[in-house]
Amino acid sequence: MVAAPVERLEVHAYTIPTDEPESDGTLEWDSTTIVVVEVHSDGKAGLGFPVKSETPPTPRKAERVSVVAEVTLRRMGKGAYQCRLFDLSPDGCKAEMIERPLVGERAVIRLPGIEPLEAEVRWVEGPNAGLKFERSFHPAVFDLLLARLG
What we know:
This protein is mainly β. It has 2 domains: 45 residues, Enolase-like, domain 1 (2-Layer Sandwich), CATH 3.30.390.10; 85 residues, predicted glycosyltransferase like domains (Thrombin, subunit H, Beta Barrel), CATH 2.40.10. A 6-stranded antiparallel beta barrel has the order 5-6-7-10-9-8. Strands 1, 2, 3 and 4 form a 4-stranded antiparallel sheet that branches. The longest helix has 11 residues.
């Protein structure tokens, strides 16, 4: 592949409202901003789509606790595998995924001594995904879980 000099850049920003407020269990937003960069070179054009929300973050419902634990995770329609879990809260966690999931995808997590827990993927960044639990942990159950993971 031969590199060609960039002749022109065209940048456009579009704010797209969501159908209803969205949340990943840590932040909430009501729109998404898409920045479209069109690069022109050698008679051809290409597009890039970085995405960033302009809606300011809202405070978390609960503080995250820094943990590192191996848990079993199964994405709906996929096989189960071990993954690393980080930053646990009663409402969700951050997990290192083997395969990149899609936002909105559902998964089941098996934590030590607790029934399987259904969660939804709320964000994906590199190999990590933010998961929001379908049901929040009761404080006493959460404290017990932290003791088991600690």
